[in-house]
Amino acid sequence: MTLPRTPALATDCVVFDPLGRVLLIRRGHEPCAGKHALPGGFVKIGETVASACRREVKEETGIEVAEISLVGVYSDIDRDPRGHIVSVAFMTELTNETSPRVGSDARSAEWVDMGDIDLAFDHALIFAHAKAKLRIKDAR
Amino acid sequence: MTLPRTPALATDCVVFDPLGRVLLIRRGHEPCAGKHALPGGFVKIGETVASACRREVKEETGIEVAEISLVGVYSDIDRDPRGHIVSVAFMTELTNETSPRVGSDARSAEWVDMGDIDLAFDHALIFAHAKAKLRIKDAR
Predict the structure, then answer these.
(1) For B6, which of A4, A43, A73 is closest by C-beta distance?
(2) Average model confidence (pLDDT) for chain A?
């Protein structure tokens, strides 16, 4: 059976470090070339969304993430100029300081203070939702 | 730009009624023809996953759902024999009793007591996760 065409599936990750910073890349390609973004990318056929998320973080920043938790699913039609791309967003909190190294598709990979960041696509929304979940966890 | 091929994207919905029952269909087609399943189906390009979820519930059971909340994202490679299909699962609790009517792709649509149900695909897992979230909400 041929499966119907559906929106493309991607994943993004909000990685927090113990100093309250977030892991961002600067995009190497259009759209939004040069802009800060969450690490992420397309899910491959044959991998789970969580595996794709870990793979993309590793490829783009060199950082290995283990436990990740779901932030939300972002599917607005116009969230990406390339077409209808649905992103499953995850988050994780690292317990140790780790230095990123720039990898595939990215111009840079760095820890950024959360105060004043300008993000590509709808990544500001994803980041805000992840930060809210962080606060709930911290309040326990 | 051509988007890469990614897993097919679907959605399923766990609809609870005020009597503690769950809305199930009996599948009209293979795979799992004749088996109970959650209402759901493929996401179309140009609709959000939440819109697709509401549309599928309406098409398959005649029931209109408004507010839906995310249960999880199910992406195991072998969860569907037709290929790699990722499901974004939602849940909702109806406040009024409503009678379903059988719609597209389904052999029947009915309210089923939660005690002893046998579900197609990984829908038992989705259902268990939704039920757990229901308990958390009820405990507030």
Answers:
(1) A43
(2) 92
Partner-chain residue, chosen from B4, B10, B73, that has the shortest CB–CB distance to A49 = B73
Chain B environment of A41 (Cβ under 8 Å)? none
Task: Write the ipTM.
Answer: 0.93
B chain contacts of residue A6, beta-carbon cutoff 8 Å:
8-10, 42-45
**CA separation for the pair A115, A121 (Å, rounded):** 18
Query: How many pairs of residues across A and B have Cβ atoms under 8 Å apart?
Result: 82
Cβ contact B77–A46 (<8 Å): yes
Task: Find the largest Cα–Cα distance for chain B.
Answer: 50
How confident is the model over A70-100, as pLDDT tens digits? Answer: 999 999 999 999 999 999 999 999 998 889 9
Q: Return d(Cα B23, Cα A76) in angstroms, integer.
A: 27
User: Which helix (DSSP H) or strand (DSSP E) does residue A135 occupy?
Assistant: helix A123-138
* DSSP type of residue A43: P
Confirm if B37 and B60 have CB atoms less than 8 A apart: no
List CB contacts (< 8 A) between B10 and chain A. Answer: 6
Nearest-CB residue to B8 (from A3, A10, A72)? A3
Give chain B as a 3 state SS string.
CCCCCCCEEEEEEEEECCCCEEEEEEECCCCCCCCEECCEEECCCCCCHHHHHHHHHHHHHCCCCCCCEEEEEECCCCCCCCCCEEEEEEEEECCCCCCCCCCCCEEEEEEEECCCCCECCCHHHHHHHHHHHHHHHHCC
